[in-house]
Amino acid sequence: MKKLLFLLTLSALIGVSSMQAADVLTLGNADFETAWTGLTDYGDPEIILKKVGAIATGVTGWTGDVGNGGLTIYQGPGRTGSNAAVLVNTDDTRGCRFYNNSVMTLTKGGQYKLTFYARGSATLVNVSLFQSGKRPTISEVTGPNAAGVYDATKTANSPISLGNTWTKMEYYFTVPVASAYTDYKLYFAFYKTQSPALDGSNLNDIFMIDDITFEPFVDNTIATLTEITVGGKAINNFNPNTTTYNILTNNATIPAIVGTPTDATATVVVGEPVQVDNTIAYEIEVTAADGVTKKVYTVVFNVTNDVVLQGFTSDLLPAGWISSQTSGTNDWMIDQNANYNNGLYMGSYSVRIRGGGAGNPSITSGWLMIPNLDLPDLLTFYMKTRVAGTSTFSVYKRPASEATFTDLTGWTLCETLTEPFDATFTEKSVSINSNQLTDILFYVEKEDEKIPFALDDIRITLKDTTTGNTQTSASKVIFKTSKGLLSFESPEHVNYAVRTLTGAAVKVGQGNHVSLRLPQGFYLVEINGKTQKVVIP
To answer: Over the stretch 99-111, which tens digit does the pLDDT of each residue have?
Structure first.
């Protein structure tokens, strides 16, 4: 009989300084040696396994959940004792859950280590903790989710191929200090395993787990982040092991950058911005609790004069956008059902016209307007098909007007796209080519109750009207910025103008060594007619 490491004695509680009095870390039948129920023999000509009849109750202390896949459980030979759990889900893409019935009470901010042994092959969706009051979906087990706790160093949906060697697997969890939960259960999710052959010929390849321990753990060398937020919005697809992130921006103010440490006792320092041409880089240095281990993340803003919507970060239409309404409800909406992220934009939402039906107003046509764009040249966006149907998607333009949309009178057609569109997000470009202040209109005609498409990462490129003497351009000028101070040096005497992003003049003059005190923000610096965007921290 294997020793259950989860039945912690009083001496163990005293010996682990990081464990709180409130911690309850007991996992039932963690070595699978407690008697199972409802077993039948499996194998021919020899019995090689015992098959579980009811996966929800057959493994004492554990629950097998079919989920999206077709889970089957067997009792197999153990690593150190008699039994191990053989978990079979042969589905190629969809995971199923296997979880312990015990509720563990953990400490907010506490660090814990999960150890188990595995053999065979599978695609491991994830191993995570989830608040005990709800059985999570597969995507919630995968994470991230506010009700779950995850090992940020692990990659979801990772194939493993261990053969017949019992291999130690370790996961490290830190319960967020701000978590709304302290009671958790342990979940395994997996797919793409092999089903055991009757003759046992593939016994070395079937997926088994055994000897699970869960204990307090103090690691003072953790120097990673769990997320980076820019202007209060989390960077999409953040990975603690990826240290550089590029964001396209034309923001007129410097967004606040915040890094959240994996270990609450680590320190995080966001450095001063470093500008090179049209890029502005911020370094985020994370120092582990040991004061020695460090990791540096870099957020690079690629500054552009384009009108850029950095994806969609909430379910609200951007300020200034106007859409048609049916029964007082916007015909266009933003949701998370289909989003695209090309690495330069932020947000996990996309915009689309409502489907109508099912209690919603009937919508067969609708419009969405982006007003008052200064010299728009090219409209670029990503589009994918949501629901097949007959739809027409058109882009129009008109001279900017205070009037809302009533009909297409006065509008000029730029381009019409007709379904079928691509089933995956594909970049589309429409020429606007306007020399004046302009309104842009998306106009859709569609079948009722259809959601024909989703749009994301919309970008509008403005015309470059810069002219003038180019003997000395902004690219040859050395810019230096510090808090409240802009200075630049030129190899020759130049005419310069410092303006806000709206074009208002801040300072106009001549010289080759210039130093100016300015409020925080972005500015346009014209050097002999050529423009450079700079940031004052």
So the answer is: 999 999 999 989 8
The pLDDT of residue 349 = 76
Task: Tell me the pairing of strands 365-374 and 437-445.
Answer: antiparallel
Whole-angstrom distance, CA of residue 120 vs CA of residue 9: 34
Closest CA to 279 of 532, 2, 477, 13: 532
CB atoms near residue 522 (< 10 Å):
19
Q: Is the dihedral of CA 528, 529, 533, 535 positive or negative?
A: positive
Distance of CA 534 to the CA centre of its chain: 29
Do 368 and 499 have their domain in common?
no
Q: Take residue 3 and report the two structure tokens written for it.
A: 């020793």
| Residue 123: both structure tokens together | 């695609």
CA distance 366 to 356: 11
Final residue before a domain boundary, out of 260, 283, 304: 304
Burial per residue of 133-145, b for 16 or more beta-carbon CB atoms within 10 angstroms, e otherwise? eeebebebbbbeb
Q: How confident is the model at residue 362 (pLDDT cuts 50, 70, 90)?
A: confident
User: Are 139 and 275 found together in one domain?
Assistant: no
Within 13 Å, how many C-alpha atoms sit on residue 423's CB side?
A: 1
> Considering 263, 289, 304, which residue would you say is the last residue of a domain?
304
Q: Map residue 246 onto helix, strand or coil.
A: strand
Residue 414 has pLDDT above 90, yes or no: yes
Q: Is 252 exposed, middle or buried (0-12, 13-18, 19+ CB in 10 A)?
A: exposed
pTM of the model: 0.49
**pLDDT tens digits for range 418-427:** 766 677 788 8
DSSP H/E element including 10: helix 10-15
Quickly tell me which residue has 């202040």 as its tokens. 437
The Cα–Cα gap between 263 and 327 comes to 50
Residue entry with tokens 């429409």 = 430
Closest C-alpha among 479, 486, 475, 474 to residue 536: 486
CATH of the domain at 478: 2.60.40.10
Q: Looking at the structure, tell me whether residues 61 and 155 fall in a common domain.
A: yes
Query: What is the SS3 string spanning 357-401?
Result: ECCECCCCEEEEEEEEEECEEEEEEEEEECCCCCCEEEEEEEECC
Q: What pLDDT, in 10s, does the model give residues 84-135?
A: 999 999 998 889 999 999 999 999 989 899 999 999 999 999 999 999 999 9
